[in-house]
Amino acid sequence: MTAIPSAHESDTRPMSGTLLLLLAVAAGLSVASLYYVQPMLGVLAPAIGASDRSVGFLPTLTQLGYAAGILFLAPLGDRYDRKKIILVKAVILSLALLSSGVAPSIAALLAASFIIGLSATMAQDIVPAAAHLAQPAQRGKTVGTVMTGLLLGILMSRVISGIVAEHFGWRAMFYVAAAAVLLLGLTLWRGLPAFAPTTRLPYAALLRSVGELWRKHPTLRLATLSQGLLSLAFSAFWSTLAIMLHGEPFNMGPGVAGAFGIAGAVGALAAPLAGRMADRRGPAMVSRVGAGLTTLSFAAMAVMPMLPPTGALWLLGASTVGFDLGIQIALISHQTIVYGIDHAARSRLNAVLMVGVFVGMALGGALASMALANFGWTGVTFVATAAALLALVLRLRAGAAVRLSPA
């Protein structure tokens, strides 16, 4: 019988293109589970007998679950075989998606949403797995490829969700997603090697070390707060877009809301360019460019009420391209900064940054839901613009570019 290869063997053997593609697809498909619900909010509320405000908290619970999973589960990748962790999360994620599809009430859907977020953190196990499997000279390219898959998964999830919900109903989307994740788990079981643990630290000690990194490194705190604020703005937009388009004067279904993900895909495709810019110009400067572009894009939406519906939609599409591009530029720059702080603690540093990102997204969904209910779309754009502007101010005050430690 042929032995299952261990991850150690990849140190002397290039990773196959097939495995790299599988990891990129796996990262995108797992993180896509966080966003399927967003374009469906407008039709989901009346279908399940819930208020717009109640369904607006579905993205919030999903993002909170994801943040909790990164904080409390991601460190386990250093302690146990990462392949087993990925496979267990795939099974749980598939079951949670299926539970959402059969949910009889908003309460059941909210509970399932939190578990979806918790188990979708398999994406944050896949990215370091790819970095570990890659040869040192190819590590940056490998991680960039997997991150492109992850970002495309985030954006295209809305397109797919909108189309499926438009033609087959919102429950069908969860059934399709559950089947896709289960198939993904079977493929990873066959194709992913085992990973030897890199530490024997007890679980409590692993968690304590994350807090110590936060206290020790002001650069980490700045990057996390800045990206968290940009993520708040990002989530404020996407968690309320479908509800806004469903009402007057647009009266559009989930398919149109999901189609805006195509515009946002420009940002994901620009991720490699952002990495090269950070290498040449310094990640701190490039992060300021990203925050500035995001702020301008959201501020431009303030004039939408002054335009006819067609003009407002064109402006909305252009602004979506702008802020998605800006946020992805900032994210790649902040990752470059964080990975340069301590090469021996990259997984935990990444966990801190990603917790900031998804806490920001959770807050963005909650604040935008309240802003939409009380002040309409103008309130949402104010929340998003204010958060992006604060991120820009933090980056501008940071001053000189971050000097990275040698590789």
UniProtKB/TrEMBL annotation:
Residue ranges crossing the lipid bilayer per the database entry: 19-37, 57-74, 143-160, 172-192, 222-244, 256-274, 286-307, 313-337, 349-369, 375-394
Molecular-function annotations in GO: transmembrane transporter activity
Protein name per the record: MFS transporter
Organism: Bordetella genomosp. 9
UniProt-listed PROSITE patterns: MFS (PS50850)
Phylogenetic placement of the source organism: Bacteria, Pseudomonadati, Pseudomonadota, Betaproteobacteria, Burkholderiales
Pfam families: MFS_1
Keyword Transmembrane helix in annotation: yes
Keyword terms: Membrane, Transmembrane, Transmembrane helix
Domain (Major facilitator superfamily (MFS) profile): residue spans on this chain: 19-403
